[in-house]
Design brief:
The complex is a heterodimer of chains A (482) and B (519). Chain A is 42% helix and 13% strand. Chain B contains 22 helices and 15 strands. Classes of the chains: A alpha/beta (482), B alpha/beta (519).
Chain lengths: 482, 519
């Protein structure tokens, strides 16, 4: 059985039984990103135990997330949701006094049809803290898409752009407009605001990345004379950027299709559909697309990319010709696969929980182009894969590496397949030129581990026999490449 | 609604799944939305399992919500039946999907007709019971089911083993040191000339269940799981069970005596005392020998090291079994004062109170961690013996904590042999207690000799700075780097700057340095 085709990308939907983390996981990185926030997950014990145990999110000193645990009386509607939520939010206000409370709806609130969106505005007015409602439920979404639901909800809270910024000629702006604009421009801007008033329409980036990555991407764009007006999410709730029909928006994560839609529909922003800034190739394409939109000739971008590739050479030697199988978990799969193909790897299958073909159009195009340029088969993209069938395919193909969720890693390792946890790519800094090295550091770790254990096979853990007696199943035997 | 930051026990379905995946060749089907099936991650990661967790989620999505599961659950059961050929398929909803009130029993009945495996619906109320109660109930349900099934087979009959034998009930996956405890109990029984008939559910097959009544006696090492099964086996099959927990020197001795009392009765009832059993004198000799020479814990408590623990105040908190036993050990075997003993197993509160009565100053029964935290802050004990949660409370208050009970962490799955039960268990517990305190000896010597070098380290580097300057943005970025690598990044960046002849390290220089050295 082959999972690859020559000419065009194949997207299929297996609609199988697959495992990924619950979308409420996004709380674990969003509470850190939005520093003055409080996240209240409204769900059952199952949800809370997940955050606590599977994800290991435990904050004790100064907790900024909590569960509103639904009990039997809530489920059977003996209690009033409004009163209950009010009691909890007042408690939170008293203990933590956050600038914003995020209500994270779960499967349970969907099923019992809690009217969170209806309650929030009333309560917001009553307690005086903004409440943002996101439905990060497992009925509709997978893992990282939780962030998508939160950011899409945040779009609503972004202020509208007051005036038409006079982009081409700032001199035309009236005195009053400047006066109006001045304080807002100051509060809305991120850390690196060294670039003077830009000569292009406002650009807002969306996607939660650590502040280091924010700075790195800001520096890269500044080099091209591009100024970032703001990020969604910003470090603080009060720093959310202004949005309006003149604003161009661009995403940094492949899983933010709802946010993109919300930006376009609710705020009439213009979406720049670019590949994602993952890997030097993706980052270059991302910057190029933004430059192109603003009619800017990119400066020194090709040199920058090739310089990065040169520095990756020690890692590239390890991965060239090696094969990889994505079981699918965090929706970063297409971008990572494209980068790894560019590194010289062979991708058998890209499992992915969900793909928005329109939002990922540029990325898919770049993937296709990369495969052609590297002269390798197009990988098959499998949406909602069936994990059981995937394991059969992995056994058949024997890839050098399987990128998989945590549940399947140890069993696959025990069967002689090297694995890497997909969640590591969710939590590691992988965006931009600088961090390309970190992706390869992660990818090559199992390969390097294997070469350091290579003398010992799987049947002989202790080296007391000739090293040639290595089990056929052993991980270090390179599988024949398709 | 309950505002909650931390949970001592998980939702009911986790208990059910723990029992299901403890048995060999039993597959669990969850009726649950995407992401509710994280149990496979817990088991695979914590237990470092080599096999795939025998569990499939039949996913509840928008379509299921709109039109019901229809054939989905039944199809998934029959599919697993052919793919994995399990002996039993156990179906369970989660808190979430149980609200849908789909007739899972009907799906199970339908699937039962077509599948080779037995199919059961776990019978627990997901909003009324905890993980441990659900595990206890599911275990009983499975045992009950297979004994009922055996009864229908005319060829099957109960034949008591000719040698004295016991079943060990309640060892299961993700339990706190359960594997180590199983090994220690097996060793204990071997030395006492008693056979271990079946250990359930961990590592057992559902086919073993029909041999359960052949044993003379059931051992329930933990209160939390196995007790329901033992009670059922007593009522229905006339099998006695032990209630003493073999933890600590006193209770282990008590446990052995209890086992032999039961065995002697059984010997009389079944075999007219025709079976070779250790005499009461031999049993007492064994206990004495183990207590004084095999276990070092008794001597250790009387040694000079332990003098310094005298009168130290501690707080104990955990599941009912471990918290009660630890309280007794600390108080009566080590002479440590237990200021408060507590448990989150609210359903065991009567038993717990009775057990720790007289061994502690106060008792706390709650599953609210803030209460526990506040109590510890108020008492300011010298050490805590609790769960991972209390370990975190201790970290914050700078009070050492020994972990004695679930909720677990990867640290509680050591590769080495660390039982809590039996005589080896007493050694482990003594080590744990002694090492948890700011060491008895060390503490004492610090007082005598005025302590270690107490000068604080201000500058890690012994060399002076090298002429490069850090710009404010560079410095700010450096501060964001986690402390344990900051020094390395700083050195590498400065080295890079010197090589490049850069005087002022800005944020751009930092990234350039990172790209060049891969720091």
């Amino acid at each position: 059985m082959t999972t690859q085709t020559k000419d065009a990308l194949v997207l299929e939907c297996e609609t199988g039984n697959y495992h990924t983390f619950c979308p409420i996981s996004c709380v674990s990185w969003l509470y850190q990103k939005i520093e003055d926030s409080f996240f209240l997950v409204i769900g059952t014990k199952t949800c809370g135990y997940f955050l606590q145990n599977a994800l290991g999110v435990m904050i004790f000193a100064e907790p900024r997330y909590a569960m509103a645990e639904l009990e039997e009386a809530d489920i059977s509607a003996q209690l009033n949701d409004y009163k209950e939520l009010k009691r909890l939010c007042l408690q939170i206000k008293k203990d933590r006094n956050p600038s914003v409370i995020f209500w994270i709806g779960t499967c349970t609130t969907e099923i019992i049809k809690t009217d969170l969106e209806g309650i929030a505005p009333r309560l917001e007015a009553e307690i005086g803290i903004p409440i943002v409602v996101a439905r990060a439920n497992g009925l509709d979404y997978a893992f990282t898409q939780g962030e998508d639901t939160v950011l899409a909800a945040l779009v609503q809270s972004c202020p509208n752009l007051q005036t038409t910024p006079t982009v081409e000629d700032p001199a035309q702006a009236t005195f009053v407009q400047q006066l109006l604009q001045w304080p807002l421009a100051n509060t809305g801007a991120p850390a690196a605001t060294t670039v003077p008033q830009a000569k292009h329409p406002p650009l807002v980036l969306f996607g939660s990345v650590p502040s280091t990555v924010v700075n790195q991407l800001t520096v890269e764009l500044n080099k091209q004379g591009i100024h970032i007006s703001g990020w969604i999410p910003a470090r603080r709730y009060s720093e959310l950027p202004e949005l309006g029909p003149e604003v161009y928006v661009c995403g940094v994560h492949p899983y933010l299709s709802r946010t993109a839609t919300a930006l376009m529909r609710r705020k009439e922003c213009k979406l720049i559909n670019a590949p994602f800034p993952i890997g030097p190739d993706g980052t270059r394409a991302w910057i190029e697309k933004i430059c192109q939109t603003f009619d800017i000739e990119p400066q020194g971008l090709a040199e920058r990319e090739s310089a990065i590739w040169e520095k990756l050479e020690d890692y590239l030697e390890l991965v060239r010709g090696k094969s990889v199988f994505f079981m699918g978990d965090n929706v970063l799969e297409v971008s990572l696969a494209r980068f790894l193909i560019r590194c010289g790897m062979i991708v058998y299958e890209i499992g992915i929980p969900y793909i928005d073909k329109r939002f990922q159009a540029s990325e898919l195009q770049l993937l296709e182009q990369t495969c052609r340029e590297m002269n390798v088969m197009m990988p098959r993209i499998v949406e909602k894969p069936d994990n059981y069938h995937q394991i059969q395919r992995i056994r058949e193909l024997m890839p050098d590496l399987a990128i998989t969720g945590m549940a399947h890693a140890n069993p696959l390792e025990a069967r002689g397949i090297s694995t890497k946890w997909s969640v590591e790519f969710t939590f590691a800094q992988i965006h931009g030129f600088t961090n390309a090295r970190d992706i390869l550091e992660l990818v090559t770790r199992p390969l390097r581990r294997n070469s350091s254990l290579s003398e010992l096979g799987w049947t002989t853990f202790v080296k007391d026999v000739s090293p040639k007696t290595i089990d056929v199943q052993s991980t270090n035997v390179t599988s024949p490449i398709a | 609604m309950k505002l909650c930051y931390w949970m001592y026990s998980g939702p009911a379905h986790i208990g059910t799944l723990r029992v299901a995946s403890s048995f060999k060749n039993v597959h669990a089907i969850m009726h649950a939305p995407l992401g509710d099936d994280y149990f496979n991650v817990l088991r695979s990661m914590l237990e470092r399992e080599r096999d795939f967790t025998p569990m499939t989620a039949s996913i509840v999505d928008r379509h299921v919500l709109a039109r019901g599961s229809q054939e989905k659950v039944v199809d998934n059961i029959t599919r697993k039946d052919t793919e994995d050929v399990p002996d039993l398929i156990l179906v369970t909803p989660t808190c979430t999907s149980s609200i849908l009130q789909e007739d899972l029993q009907n799906f199970v009945n339908r699937a039962f007709l077509d599948s080779k495996a037995d199919v059961l619906l776990a019978d627990v109320n997901h909003y009324r019971v905890t993980e441990l109660q659900a595990a206890d109930r599911t275990f009983e349900q499975v045992v009950h089911f297979y004994l009922d099934k055996a009864k229908k087979n005319p060829a099957w009959q109960v034949a008591k083993t000719t040698r004295p034998s016991v079943n060990i009930l309640g060892m299961f996956t993700l339990g706190f040191h359960n594997q180590h405890d199983t090994r220690e109990l097996r060793r204990l029984f071997k030395e006492l000339g008693v056979d271990v008939n079946v250990v359930l559910p961990e590592g057992g097959s559902v086919h073993d269940i029909q041999q359960v009544p052949n044993a003379w006696l059931n051992i329930v090492p933990y209160r939390e799981i196995g007790l329901m099964t033992a009670r059922y086996l007593e009522e229905e099959w006339g099998m006695p069970y032990t209630t003493t927990i073999p933890m600590g020197l006193v209770d282990t001795a008590q446990f052995i005596r209890e086992v032999f009392a039961h065995l002697r009765t059984c010997s009389r009832d079944y075999f007219n005392e025709d079976v070779q059993l250790k005499t009461p004198e031999e049993v007492e000799d064994y206990i004495d020998n183990q207590t004084r020479f095999v276990s070092q814990a008794g001597w250790f408590s009387r040694s000079i090291d332990c003098q310094n623990l005298t009168g130290k105040k501690v707080v104990v908190f955990g599941d009912a079994t471990h918290a009660a036993s630890m309280t007794k050990i600390l108080s009566r075997e080590m002479g440590i004062r237990v200021s408060c003993a507590g448990t989150y197993c609210k359903n065991e509160s009567d038993w717990f109170r009775e057990q720790v009565h007289g061994y502690c100053d106060e008792i706390l029964i709650t599953d609210d961690h803030t209460q526990v935290g506040d109590l510890i802050a108020r008492i300011e004990p010298a050490a805590i013996f609790g769960t991972q949660m209390e370990r975190h409370i201790g970290k914050r208050l700078e009070i050492p904590c020994g972990v004695i009970s679930a909720p677990v962490h990867i640290q509680n799955f050591p590769l080495g042999f660390r039982p809590f039960l039996g005589y080896e268990g007493t050694n482990q517990i003594a080590d744990l207690v002694y090492n948890s305190f700011t060491l008895g000896m060390e503490d004492h010597l610090l007082e005598i000799f005025g302590g270690h070098d107490t000068k604080e380290v201000i500058e890690k580097s012994l060399s002076t700075t090298n002429g490069v300057q850090w710009a404010p943005d560079g410095l700010a970025e450096l501060q964001k780097v986690p402390g344990f690598v900051r020094g390395k990044i700083k050195r590498n960046t400065e080295k890079f700057a010197k090589e490049q002849g850069i005087q002022n390290i800005t944020i751009e220089v930092m990234y350039a340095a990172k790209e060049s050295v891969g720091a």
